[in-house]
Structures are given as structure tokens and as C-alpha cells.
Amino acid sequence: MRGEGVYLWDASGKRYLDFSGSAAVNFIGHGVPEIAAAMAAQAQQLEFAHSSQFVTPVAEEYAQELLDFAGENFQDGCVYFTCGGSESIETALKLARQYQVEIGQPKRYQIISRGQSYHGSTLGALSVSGNKRRREMYLPMVREFEHVTFPYCYRCAYDCTDSCRNCGQEYAADLERAIEEANGEAAAFIFEPVSGATLGAVVPPPGYLQSVAETCRRHGVLLIADEVMTGMGRTGRNFAVEHWDVAPDIVVTAKGLSSGYAPLGAVIATKKVTDAIANGSGAFLHGFTYNSHPISLAAGRAVLKHLQREKLVQAADSSQEGSTASRLTQALQSLNTLDTVGEVRGIGLLWGVEFVADKIAKKPFPPEMNFASRVGQAAAARGLLVYPMQGCVDGISGDHLLLAPPAVITTEQIDWAVEQLSAAIEEAGKP
Ligand SMILES: Cc1ncc(COP(=O)(O)O)c(C=O)c1O
Fold this sequence. Notes:
This protein is α/β, with parallel strands linked by helices. It is 35% helix and 16% strand. The chain is built from 14 helices and 15 strands. The chain has a 7-stranded mixed beta sheet, with helices on both faces. Strands 1-2-3-13 form a 4-stranded mixed beta sheet. 54% of the residues are buried. Pyridoxal-5'-phosphate is lined by residues 23, 84-86, 89, 118-121, 192, 196-197, 226, 228-229, 254. Residues 23, 84-86, 89, 118-121, 192, 196-197, 226, 228-229, 254 line the site of pyridoxal-5'-phosphate (PLP).
């Protein structure tokens, strides 16, 4: 098997266009030689040293570059490197708890999250995730905190007709209610700025995230943005929260961070959070053996350099005329004419296509029909890779696809991919 640009070839030599960046991982394209070279050079210099004994130059330099990339809000903050999204989420949850203890708030331990969310597969991450299918079996093993409602405009609980412009505030108010009911025990609120796999690229209405951020500040609750999927340029901003001018206390990122070239995740914390620990007990009580693994960091650092040099964040900006993302936005609109497509939604290079059995009533397909998987299989047979999911309506029913191509995709490749996807959707609808 091999990869180059937007293509993957399987063991038999069949070529696939990677229209979902695997699982929204690959942002810079497959097979970029300079990333492999940077990893090899690091391996020759130093393959590994434990972070309790040494801070490596690659960790120090890359952390500073990431803080700069994350912007002013993270100036003089710290970066904690892990091997992926779930490890980073665990880290962020514990960091939030330790912060509260360090500032004299030991009662605060609850992490409030949103229903229909996904934050990872480890038990801590599952406890704050709302994805029914991925968590139900493990529920007896996890500590449960409140999951609040969230704006999913296509299926708005308030039946609004203004894309949740007004009722976004009702959803934000639900967080305030949950914090108040937690009775001084809420430590943090975690959210995906744009919903990832569980809902398929649902973009929040204007004002909602700003209100959420303001509510957290007012109540002394840390704001954790899970940008595992949306970070590192995927939505056309370095981090998706920038679309709404929200300044989280902690940002978690992975996937696009290394674009898949090595297992890598990062927790980026503001000075406020890290100072509390530095000026308190002095050490974060947490760690994995492979924190700050030099070869993964060399990969991530080379990816960051590459995406900045090639202006890939700009390519992913769907609001910029002529950008790759604006061409993708335009091309995807043609799917709206299909009888089984309920909504095409998204931002930048992160898009969702929701399927319905009845377009007017927005009625989903019966879950046992596995409609999204059928589309995924029909697309793969045509040489197109997409990311099918189920459960967007209520955690069980509702079929959708996630699309997240590498930012190097060309106009011709976009047109070909959408054509194949359209045909695959029609095929899946046939008995
Ligand atoms: C928003 C979000 N958070 C966390 C995770 C977990 O990341 P990982 O699979 O790297 O552990 C994912 C994975 O899909 C994700 O989309």
C-alpha cells in the first residue's frame, strides 16, 4: 500500500481518492518527502529520551512554534505533547481538575460536555462524549457528568427558521443551567467548535460560542476546545474557534497536527492555567511514557512548516474566493438535488452530508439499512474514500458522511470526487 497527494493505492494496486483524509487526519497530502526526511534525521540524532529526564530541542522549538500558531491568547502558555486525540483529551481533563485544585477550588471536578459529541475512546474521554453508539456498552464503567443541548440547526429543537440565530442563545443558556445545577462542582466545559464525526460538520450559529465562553468565564469554569479534528487549519483558520473570536483556556489538537505522519496530539494551555500549577504545587501530576516523542515531534514540526509555506490554511478558507475550500463548497451543493440528501453542511475543508428517506419530513433511513455505509461501499468501489457514520438524529438513527480532503486537492479532483459521490449515493438508494 502507498500514498501520494490525495491518492492511496491498496495492495492490489487499486487507486482511491482520499476524500475524507482517512478520518479527517491528512491535511497536507500523502507521501510528502520532507516529512519523512525530518523524521529520519531526528531518528538518527535521537530516537527517544524520557520527558522526566530531558527536554529535547525539538520539543522546545516546536512548542514555541505551536504557541505562536495558536495566537495571542496562548502567549507564554505551554504545550503538552501526547500520541493522539484521546490521550490529549485525558490530559486536558486532568489539567482542568488540577488547575481548580491549585487555585483553591478543590470542590470543582465535573466536566460538562454536549450531547452528540465525540471526544475519544478512553474511559475519561468517553465519559464526556455524547456519542451513544460508541459509549453505551461502557457506561457502567464511566463517571457521568451532564451533557447539555447544542444547536443542530437542521433538526433544531425550537423548530426555528433563522438558522438558530436567536435560539443559539437558548442552547447557550442550557450550559448556564447545567453549571448552576452542578452546584459549584463544575471544573470545565468541553466542546467541538464544529461537530466532527458524531453529527457531521455541524457549524454553530453566530453568537452561540461567544455566549458559551462568556458563561464559563463568569462561573470560573475552564473552556476546553476539542480541536482534534478542526485544528491546524482544517476549517480555514489555524484553530476553528477563531471563526467566532472565542479564546479557550485549553485547546486540544491531534489528527492534522501531524497529518498522520506519526502518532501525535497536543494540549495547548494558556498562561493562566500553567501559571496556576507553576506557582502552586509546581508539577502537573500526569504523564505517558511517550510524551513528546522526538520522532513524532519532528513529523509535526515539519508538517507545520510545510502547511505554512504552502499556505494550506488559506486554501482551506471557504470564505476566500477562488480557494480550494470555496471550490469544494460550490461543487458539493450539487448533491442537494438528490432525493436522499437532506443537508450538505460544513466549513472550510470539513463537510457533512446527511441522508434522509423523506426530504420534506427529514425522516431518517431505518438504522438497519446502514445507508451511509452503503454509500461508503459504493464510493470505495468507484475509487473514492469517504467517512460514513450513523446516529446524527438521536445517537442511533440518522446517516451521514464526513468529508475532509487534503488541502492539496485540485479543482479537477474535487469535480471527479463529487461526481463519483453523487453516483454512489444514487446507487445506495436503489433496492
Ligand atoms: C473531536 C475529536 N476528539 C477526540 C478524538 C479522539 O482522537 P483519537 O482517535 O486520536 O484518540 C477524535 C477522533 O475522531 C475527535 O474527532
